[in-house]
Amino acid sequence: MPSSPDRTLMFDEAAESGAVVQRQRDANRTALVALGERLRTRRPCAVATLARGSSDNAATFARYLIETRLGVLTSSVPPSVASVYNAAPDMAEMVMLAISQSGQSPDLVSGLAAARARGAYGIALTNAETSPLAAGADLSLPLHAGPERSVAATKSFVASLAAILDLVAHWSNDTSLACVLDTLPDALGRAWDCDWGAALGPLDRATSLYVVGRGPGYGIAQEAALKLKETCGLHAEAFSAAEVRHGPMALVGKGFPVLLFAQDDATRPSVAALAQEFAARGATLFHAGLGDAPGMALPVLDADPAIQPLLMIESFYRLANALALARGHDPDSPPHLAKVTETV
Fold first, then answer.
1. What is the pLDDT averaged over residues 176-193?
2. Residue (of 58, 63, 99, 54) closest to 79 by Cα position
3. Is the pLDDT at 344 greater than 70, yes or no?
4. 17 Cβ partners below 8 Å, 6+ apart?
5. How far apart are CA 56 and CA 72, in angstroms?
6. How far from 176 is each of 292, 304, 306, CA to CA, in Å?
7. Residues 6 or more apart from 295 whose CB is under 8 A from it?
8. pLDDT at residue 251, rounded to an integer
């Protein structure tokens, strides 16, 4: 049981992320070596992702990573194509990457089965090694996150991102990325200790906000917005730093809260420019990775851009837990939600 006012299940489980990633990397190393060799030898023409909720946010991260580092077209497949419409496109010479914490949702299971029947090689990333999704894949890569009792997925989300990074490192045979991943477990522990508490007061008074990122950081923005909804009862919308400049910008005015994530890659200048634009409109800005940009700078670790999004979301989870409690919510048991959502 939690031992202090801020020690929820969400708090304790998110704090385990570093140990989870180390356990996962140790357990999956042999399988990933073989998978990397297979993907290099039989290069797929495309990758399709299949997921919902937090796992779909991880799929957004995967898309940017696979397309930028491997040059392989990657796109999300709506699970209802198979589960509701009983249809499936031709997936010969493709990889289907199915991501799910529980591995139990019928629409994901049927979607993976349909993809394999149409020629795809199916890979499942799931925390439940004996789940139907794992059993229905050509290869299952367990997340090794251990039991996750809070409805809010935290360590399993970080584990999904780490597994995707490890898959890409082995597929591309990128030894430098592998070395960066060796530093990740320790870095996650230090990211958990980063204090984002200065944002607590202003966000406690918020009724809605935008969460913005770009590239791999867009998946992190999606995840942060989802967590603010489910744990804090706070209406939050995620946008890419490019897309928010269109229609959504019309809502931004004096005092409108915006949370920006920026990893130190080619997307950072555009996110920094966007911060200036938000500030000119009078928005209340909170940002991670933008240094001296206008607004409140949230502390981040100096790390390789490949893992910066994981470190930022780890720090964010601690803030989200505290914000949920400050707003009178139980982050472990959000209203109307269950740990396993079985959609068809």
1. 98
2. 99
3. no
4. 154, 155, 158, 159, 188, 192, 314
5. 19
6. 29, 10, 11
7. 258, 275, 278, 279, 283, 284, 285, 286, 287
8. 86
DSSP structure string for 103-144: S--HHHHHHHHHHHHTTPEEEEEES-TTSHHHHTSSEEEE--
DSSP 293: S
Look at the block and give the residue holding tokens 């385990």. 16
Q: Furthest-apart CA pair in the chain: how many Å?
A: 55
Going by pLDDT thresholds of 50, 70 and 90, the confidence category of residue 94 is: very high
For tokens 């960066």, the residue is 180
pTM, rounded to two decimals: 0.94
Q: The tokens of 81 are what?
A: 């194509």
> What pLDDT does residue 88 have?
86
Q: What does the pLDDT look like over 171-183, one tens digit per residue?
A: 999 999 999 999 9
Q: CB of 141 within 8 A of CB of 114?
A: no
pLDDT of residue 340 exceeding 70? no
Let me know: does 108 contact 126? Beta carbons within 8 Å: no
Rounded CA-CA distance 250/183 in Å is: 41
Coil, helix or strand for 324? helix
